[in-house]
Amino acid sequence: MEKIVIKDEYIKLGQALKLAGMVGSGIEAKIVIQEGSVTVNGQTELQRGKKLRDGDIVSYNGETIQISQ
Q1: d(CA 23, CA 33)
Q2: What is the mean predicted confidence (pLDDT) over 41-64?
Q3: Per DSSP, what are the bridge partners of residue 60?
Q4: Taking the C-alpha atoms of 43, 62, 5 and 16 in order, what is their torsion angle to the nearest 10 degrees?
């Protein structure tokens, strides 16, 4: 599991997917999130602007990342 280190209190889901290289663009992030292909802490997440905080775990397309501060 890859860790994504953030400097602020949170990062939005779409931004985290791009930062981790799981998607190539914001548009791609929007599409895969709206399709229900992304989970946050084991639950399907449909909001691109979902705020991810320290300890949250994101999974998409067989890859998993953890948000860390």
Answers
A1: 11
A2: 97
A3: 38, 63
A4: -70
